[in-house]
Structure formats: C-alpha cells, structure tokens
C-alpha cells in the first residue's frame, strides 16, 4: 500500500527559489548590469554593450600581442558564432579592425581602432565606478571572500 502523506507534491520543488544559487547570481548580475548602464549614460557611452566593453578592454591590454577570434572565444567562454556576430557589429561601429596575417590568410588579427581606444577609456570609467559602488556594499573581507568563492565556482564549472 502506498502512503500518500509522504509523497512530494508534483509542482513544488524541495527548495526555496530565492536560495537557488544560479538564480541569485543571475539576479545580482542583472542588477550590476543596470548599474553599469546607469554609469554609461552618465559618461555618454550608453550605446556600448558590456560585452563590447570587455572585448575592447582585452584588446587594449593585449595590444602588443596578436589577438584572434579564438582568443576572444576562450577568454569570455562564448561560442564561435556569438563571437563572430559581436565582432562584426564592433567592426561596423568602428571599434575594431580585422587585419590579415601574412603567414595565414584565414587568420585575422583583431586591432582596436582610435575610436575603440576612445570609447574604451570612457567605458572603463563606467566600469570602475560600478566596481567601486558594488565593492562599497561589502566589507574588504567580504569582497575578498566573494571573489574567492566566485573564482572557485568558475573554475569548477569550466
């Protein structure tokens, strides 16, 4: 005989939704992006997406190294088709150029344009403002622990 009183309801998960880690991370991520967008508007770069920010930053800090599409795919853990679309839009906006490589015509080195450098500097100001705002919500010890835990999660999920 089956005991109905111990049976779990069909539609109620055994956890409280606000405590599911991926859901909480997603919520915090959305709020951080809103804050970035607020600072972007204040710094007159509200037409730049956060992903464009990060790619321009990567190209800026690696300007003396050859950077190719596969490097962007690996660095940001995004698919080839997604990176292709992002880079095409960045090229149309004048942020980057693709330069042919003499040893392999199939490879295109990614170069940040002067416009890309200018936009990068303004977007970096917004990102620094966001980072300072978010870090200010926690103590120094809490920030260190949060970063440690996020890095641990990222490494475990890669």
From TrEMBL:
GO MF annotation list: DNA-binding transcription factor activity
SUPFAM superfamilies found in the cross-reference section: Winged helix' DNA-binding domain
GO BP term (any one): response to stress
Species of the source: Faecalibacterium duncaniae (strain DSM 17677 / JCM 31915 / A2-165) (Faecalibacterium prausnitzii)
Protein name, per record: Transcriptional regulator, MarR family
SMART domains registered for this protein in UniProt: HTH_MARR (SM00347)
Coiled coil (residue ranges): none
PROSITE patterns named among the record's database cross-references: HTH_MARR_2 (PS50995)
A Pfam family this chain is assigned to: MarR_2
Cited InterPro entries: HTH_MarR-typ, MarR/SlyA-like, WH-like_DNA-bd_sf, WH_DNA-bd_sf
């Amino acid at each position: 005989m089956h005991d109905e009183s111990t049976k779990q309801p069909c539609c109620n998960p055994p956890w409280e939704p606000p405590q599911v880690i991926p859901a909480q991370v997603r919520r915090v991520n959305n709020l951080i992006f809103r804050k970035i967008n607020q600072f972007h508007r204040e710094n007159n770069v509200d037409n730049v997406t956060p992903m464009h920010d990060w790619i321009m930053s990567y190209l800026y800090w690696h300007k003396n190294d050859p950077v190719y599409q596969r490097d962007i795919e690996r660095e940001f853990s995004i698919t080839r088709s997604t990176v292709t679309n992002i880079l095409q839009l960045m090229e149309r906006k004048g942020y980057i150029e693709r330069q042919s490589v003499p040893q392999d015509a199939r490879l295109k080195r990614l170069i940040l344009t002067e416009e890309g450098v200018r936009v990068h500097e303004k977007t970096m100001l917004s990102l620094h403002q966001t980072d300072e705002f978010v870090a200010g919500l926690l103590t120094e010890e809490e920030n260190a622990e949060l970063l440690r835990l996020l890095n641990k999660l990222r490494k475990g999920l890669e």
